[in-house]
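Researcher: Final request for today, and then I'll write up notes for the group meeting. The sequence and the SMILES for 2-acetamido-2-deoxy-beta-D-glucopyranose follow.
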Amino acid sequence: MPSWGKVVLISVLVAVVVGVVVGTVTWALMRSDSTPPDIIELDWWERTIIYQIYPRSFKDTDGDGIGDLKGITSELEHFVEMGVGTIWLSPIFVSPMVDFGYDISDFYDIHYEYGTMADFEELIRRARQLGIKVLLDYVPNHASTESEYFKKSVAREPGYENFFIWADPKIDANGNRTVPSNWISQFGGSVWEWNEERQQYYLHQFAVEQADFNFREPAVRQEMINIMQFWIEKGAHGFRLDALPHLFEADPDDHGGFFPDEPLSGNMFVTSDQIGYTTQVHIKDLIEIYDVVYEWREFADKWQEDNDSETIVLLAEAYANVSMTMLYYGDERDRIGCHFPFNFDFITSLRATSNARDFVYVISRWLTYMPYGNVANWVFGNHDNSRAPSRFRSNMVDGLNALNLILPGVAITYQGEELGMRDGYVSWNDTVDVNAINQGNPDNYLEYSRDPARTPYHWNNSTNAGFTTGQTTWLPVAEDYMEINLQAQKDAERSHYKVYQSLSRLRRMASLSHGTHYLEALSVNTLVLVRHLATYNTYALVFNVGTEEDTVDLSRVTFLAEPMTVYESSVFSRRRTGDAISLGELSLQPGEMLVLRAPPT
Ligand SMILES: *[C@@H]1O[C@H](CO)[C@@H](O)[C@H](O)[C@H]1NC(C)=O
Ligand SMILES: *[C@@H]1O[C@H](CO)[C@@H](O)[C@H](O)[C@H]1NC(C)=O
Ligand SMILES: *[C@@H]1O[C@H](CO)[C@@H](O)[C@H](O)[C@H]1NC(C)=O
Ligand SMILES: *[C@@H]1O[C@H](CO)[C@@H](O)[C@H](O)[C@H]1NC(C)=O
Ligand SMILES: *[C@@H]1O[C@H](CO)[C@@H](O)[C@H](O)[C@H]1NC(C)=O
Ligand SMILES: CC(=O)N[C@H]1CO[C@H](CO)[C@@H](O)[C@@H]1O
Ligand SMILES: [Ca+2]
Ligand SMILES: [Ca+2]
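Model: Predicted protein-2-acetamido-2-deoxy-beta-D-glucopyranose complex:
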């Protein structure tokens, strides 16, 4: 029998060892995932998920086949469930709807089809209760030709004469009136449209009914600030800034009093009235744009400071090359621009045939060129481009959403991406997009049409996908809604929606919000994205973007260690949450992604 002294000693030792072990395990478990107080707190927008709502196609509550504000308000809980912190509404302002709201005739009111100002106020009130931030679309480049601004400018009313870009005609050799320059509109045809009443041409970079504001006119600059302030005071947390590269056109004062012609591109695949016929050196990316953006940022910051409000964010829509895009963040003189310009690289630089090296290269390019200290963002689709599963492949849905949610910075989701919604089929007869109608014909309109990406959201498998209780919809509902819809994905054990939800929860972990990232192509077709932070669990996305099964070796991937388990996987994957994965060889089916959890290293 041992002496009491020994028993006590051994008991104490056992207790200490057990205590230390239990304590360490508890500590490690707590430490490994929850966010500790010593991590720098991020501002609300720096790690949010922004969900783009295309209001016309989101949810209809009065049966007219057109989505409305009440529809958005009725589904706000959906965003909370999904982990979305911010919604951005495509334009909801008064509009003749030539370009579905991007042709605004009253910047200070709500379009009747979408509801009333009271509906908007209710949306904001409910969103605030739920902690959801609301961003509005801000369309500074142009106004509808039905706007008061335009009518007053046509009539040369004092204060409005120079609100738009007006030009006298050129006279040709036959003494005939011709356009001032060869500039071509984004939607095809000349940018110049004759106005009988004023006996001058006005400029429109988009549809004929969208007249470009003159940003060299101080009254226009002031009015744009007034509009922003109006909506901020209504409760908007910021704006998505539309079509910024087109804000300015070459100034005749710099070109001997004339609007200079653009050089011809030599592109033989377009006709002389199509975009691409000229090289846009005089109507896109002019350096003056940035001063306006910096001015807006000064205004937003000042308003925020003076009113002691949360951050008002400005996000730039700019399809431009990397140097012109990065200038929207700010310039070398330390002027600050928008919070970020949208990163369209997944739309413009990657496609179904891209391999893992292309992905790694394109993602790294943004992170490399982004000025130090700024926040990145990732866009996989929007109302202007074919939907992600249609541009890439349907089996890549979970992998693309995982990239979006795991990469550092802000994730941007276009409505339906969480379900893997694909482009809908819209016949020529049903086509309503001005871009397709202007430039297309029954044989080629799909090259131009933005309608397929705008078909109504799939809520459930009822008639018209539960989008409306009415018989007709403004655009047809995509044919695959029985198979792809929110209700079905909520009911299913595994679905794109559930993967999205689980990864949006994972996104809040310290290694994802504050960790470093490490990105590499492990083979031609499989990439790995690791997120790592000191004493926290490491998470790694492995994603086969190719069309064949691929085997990669995880043993030399930095920060990975055993025991490693599957945190999430593609819906069709054979691997399930909790499955053990070794640090050796790993085979992935085409399009398959796995998110792995590894212990702190
Ligand atoms: C010039 O205008 C006249 C009268 O409108 C028209 O008959 C003629 O065809 C025009 N010439 C050219 C080159 O367009
Ligand atoms: C981007 O475009 C600008 C203006 O069109 C041009 O000056 C610049 O060289 C381009 N930069 C790159 C990296 O292509
Ligand atoms: C398209 O509309 C035209 C005229 O309304 C009609 O004659 C034609 O049958 C329609 N085509 C289809 C495919 O619906
Ligand atoms: C339609 O959805 C309901 C509810 O999700 C489901 O019970 C039903 O089986 C579905 N019907 C069809 C034909 O898929
Ligand atoms: C689908 O959604 C609509 C609109 O919310 C609703 O009226 C209908 O009952 C739903 N159908 C099913 C099968 O859930
Ligand atoms: C509602 C409110 O107090 N708005 C004020 C916010 O700050 C600006 C100046 O930046 C004032 O003009 C507003 O009246
Ligand atoms: Ca409606
Ligand atoms: Ca312009």
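Model: Residues 1-9, 19-30 have pLDDT under 50 and may be disordered. The pocket of 2-acetamido-2-deoxy-beta-D-glucopyranose (ligand 6) is lined by residues 233, 302-303, 306-307 (CB under 6 Å).
Researcher: Thanks, that's everything.
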